[in-house]
Amino acid sequence: MIIGSGLIATSFKRYADELQGVCIFASGVANSSCTDSKEFLREKILLEDTLAVIGENHQFAYFSTCSVHDPLLSSSAYVKHKLAMESIVLQRKRSHVFRLPQLAGNSKNTATLLNYLSDSIENQSSIKIWSDAERNIIDVEDVASASLHYIKNCQDENISANVCNPHRRRVLDIVKTLEKIKNKTANVEVVEGGSYYDIPLGYTKEIYSEIGLSFPESYLEDVLRKYYSR
Q1: C-alpha to C-alpha distance for 209 and 224, rounded to whole angstroms
Q2: Which of 11, 14, 48 is nearest to 28 (CA)?
Q3: What distances in angstroms separate CA 33 from CA 8, 27, 140, 195, 224, one per listed residue?
């Protein structure tokens, strides 16, 4: 069972035959800048309603955010909401939380970092970028395969895991890579400052090894070409 129709939900469709007895809840608030209490309440109600109707033997997967590790965002409405939803999920047996960074994939959501940068380059819109800002980028298809492997192999225990790229990349480097792919020059204003934070991988490293997922130097360019060269 897949709840949702966005980037994460779509990435699990190819595993439909393997999701018997598993509920993938991917219908949460997607915009990390959101402060709308109505949107947070909508997700909470849908989450609680879904948990109430699925069988007790079903596994349940919820997708949260790696921003919980960012000291600059720890007090934001979005992060507080996600932590509250995590708490609800983990009270139920056979339920799992997967925290995600910035996702690359086929999405029409203009609020995502990569779509914003790509659209800005295409439209020659001005982009203001902190000189030291770094972000963690992972292909949503890699998220789906790693999360499913977690679910299949940890059926009888609750999981709370970060599923992300082991390496951060400077936002300026992401822009330069998109420029290379599109053969266009971005209209960038660089501002001194910016921040980054570490995301602990823990057991996820072993999951990556088990499914043969690696993150070579070319990973960023390969993933961006996959979704943004069209």
Answers
A1: 23
A2: 48
A3: 18, 16, 20, 17, 23
Q: How far apart are CA 85 and CA 79, in angstroms?
A: 10
Residues 35-88 have pLDDT tens digits of 888 999 999 999 999 999 998 889 999 999 999 999 888 889 999 999 999 999
> pTM above 0.85?
yes
22-25/2-3 β-pairing: parallel
| Contact between residue 198 and residue 167 where contact means Cβ atoms under 8 Å apart | no
Q: What does each C-alpha distance from 150 to 29, 38, 86, 99, 146 come to in angstroms?
A: 23, 32, 17, 13, 6
Q: Is 220 helix (H, G, I), strand (E, B) or coil?
A: helix
Q: Which DSSP category does 17 fall into? A: G
Pairing of strands 134-135, 169-170: antiparallel
* Cβ atoms 215, 167 nearer than 8 A: yes
